[in-house]
Amino acid sequence: MAAGSGRGMLPQVYDIPKEFGSGLALLGLSWLGRQSTCTTRVAGGRPVVYLHGTGARAGSLAPLRWYQAAMGHGAGFVFDYDTTPDIDGVAFALAEYLDHVMEQAPSAPGDPLTLVGHSLGGLIIRRYLQLFPKHHPVERVFLLATPNYGTYLAHYFPTEVTTMMLPGSSFLDKLNDGSHLDDGMRYVSMYGDSDLFVLPRESMHLQGSEPVIFPGVGHNNIVLSPTVMSKIAARLAPGTQGVCDRAAQPRC
After folding, report:
1. What confidence score (pLDDT) does residue 21 get?
2. Cis bond before residue 200 (omega within 30° of 0)
3. Three-class SS of residue 180?
4. 12-27 pLDDT, tens digit each
5. The whole model's pTM is what?
6. Among 64, 68, 59, 63, which Cα is nearest to 35's?
7. What's the maximum distance between 2 C-alpha atoms anywhere in the chain?
8. Cα–Cα distance between 8 and 90 in angstroms, integer?
């Protein structure tokens, strides 16, 4: 799908209940439990680490993570973080978490990571890569509905975090200086043409990445869509069937 096929800034009427309904679904999944305590172990699979978006918790990514494990793609981990204005602090915490992941999951030392971030989670991944470019090898980065160049909607919901997502903010200027994009890593920008939270929608296409645009998909249901899940699976190297280590992680 080509970049620029979004439907502009004005939402379709039928997109509104669908977008907010999927948002409630993500909140419900978050409430059901901290899925970060559950590690899906895949023999021979490379580690895949997921980051949730603003207002959600790790449980919101459970369907996406479980789908990839069922398809035999990588050992699934979810980094559960509190949404704070200190994105640099969260990036430092992510670096420590990835140390844990590399101790627990790699099939061989030096195996590259795959990082998957929804919305704010994608910005945190990019900031981590900017601050720690040589920390651990990363092969692929999936940015799901990530406001790489900001969103004008932040004007109407001003918080310390959302103001950092305003187009032209000092944070985004720093993030988009290009310092971490020419390292041979593969970036994939995935977003829907029904997104009501990141406007303009072209802001979700990171320059130099592979754009994949999904008709009828919004900001929240992008992590619940089977079509999106299958597109991610097609871009992951195959491993073997995922099984949950219940002895070590009883809340799986």
Report:
1. 62
2. yes
3. coil
4. 555 666 666 655 566 6
5. 0.83
6. 59
7. 51
8. 32
Q: In the predicted model, what is the mean pLDDT of residues 197-218?
A: 94
Structure tokens at 203: 């802001």
Domains, the chain, ordered by start:
15-235 (3.40.50.1820)
Contact 51, 98 (CB under 8 A): no
Q: Could you give phi then psi for residue 192, rounded to 5 degrees?
A: -105, 155
One-character DSSP codes across 56-79: --GGGGHHHHHHHHHTT-SEEEEE
Whether 20 and 197 have beta carbons less than 8 Å apart is answered as no
Handedness of CA 45, 220, 82, 132 (dihedral sign): positive
Q: What is the mean pLDDT of residues 53-71?
A: 86
Tokens 């990036």, residue located: 91
Q: Could you tell me which residues come within 8 angstroms of residue 97 by beta carbon, excluding any fewer than 6 positions away?
A: 49, 77, 79
Give CA–CA dist 4/140, Å, rounded.
Answer: 23
